[in-house]
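Review form for a predicted model. The reviewer records the input and the model, then writes brief findings.
Reviewer: anonymous (R2)
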Amino acid sequence: MSGDLLSLLAARAEAGRPLRVGLIGAGKFGTMFLAQARRVPGLHVLGVADLAPERARGALLRAGWPEARFAAGSLAEALATGGTHVGDDAAALIAAAGLDVIVEATGVPAAGIAHCLLAIDYHRHIVMVNVEADALAGPILARRAAQAGVVYSLAYGDQPALIAELVEWARISGFEVICAGKGTRYLPAYHYSTPETVWEHYGLTPEQVARGGFNPQMFNSFLDGTKSAIEMAAVANACRLTPQPDGLRFPPCGVDDLPHICRPEAEGGRLAHAGTVEVVSSLERDGRPVYRDLRWGVYVTVVAPDDYVKQCFAEYGLVTDASGRYTALYRPYHLIGLELAVSVLRVGLRGEATGCPGAFRGDVVAVAKRDLAAGERLDGEGGYTVYGRLFPAATSLERGLLPIGLAHELTLRHPVPAGTALRWEDVHYEPTNPTVRMRKLMERTFGGAG
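Model under review:
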């Protein structure tokens, strides 16, 4: 199918076949999507499923939806009237007649995998906002989707999909991708932050936290490096880039220094090798802010293949390293769910993913935040016990390391010292658990290779 997205959408609307999408999870990302989706003619949010339907209704109201628009009593009524059903039954939403695309935005790995598999069974396209699920089992989910003739896609507006877009631009233009990544606020001490200490690092008062209704564990997963590792695993797997042996280094770096910092060590940079991912910090190691930081943005660094292209870099004003060979393209901001309709329309109208994992290059493993004792129960991303660290997938598999996405409610069999990556053999787990089985299937299928 060809044509620009809005024309394709308008044609479907005129034919009485709007593009129908179902949203699972009405958190911040989902609410931001809803705020803009109602402004796109021809895009019909058929239903919103959330374990707390009242929270979903509140999200719709905050996003500016008239209450009458989501008063439909059933999915069938929503289909007939063009309204939006709100409920707690994600399976029913996935199975609803007329649905084209599912947006999975729960943030819970097990839920994301289960919803994705059900969507494949019902021949629905999937936009996976749930990057936690993607990092845990995305390559095998994408393969299953392709075999069923549906599209599995990363979510535009979130950093991995925007990075994948930059990588695609570079490769289509004939450039070798040296590094791709994003910015964040980082200091080494953040790895050991807990939900009790997170707000002091963000500079928020208890009153501000109470007013905002913020989730401390979720915010802590951003601060302690887990979310960065998960997102860079998604990029590595979607773009066939190989993480550095020691994972992310988080070098302090502003946008003007990207060509200098994000090049190989052999060339004077900070990367173990070319063709990798890295997250740059908006803070110097002493806590001072980096000049012209990229905290909210994404980037790709490339290298001139010959002297002629190097000369073109100079002629057109590109910022380069001292050699004139390395340069970077960056985007200073990402707009989260406000941009998600780009994925929904590309997937639903053209059958195109905005980033899709085709290899298993990067893995995120659980690392002890403190000395852990036998019998302790793990509490997952952003909690008190572990944080996520990026590893090359081949290394993770060779060492039998435990994925961070499964480090929830598992009990330790052995003590684990602080700073140590946990292994499967360190925990009690149920081999027949559906999420564990899907992860093990991915490991056997891909074997940490691209």
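Findings: The chain has three domains: 5-157+339-350, 160-186+225-334, 362-446.
Further findings: The domain at 5-157+339-350 is CATH 3.40.50.720 (Rossmann fold).
Recommendation: see findings above.
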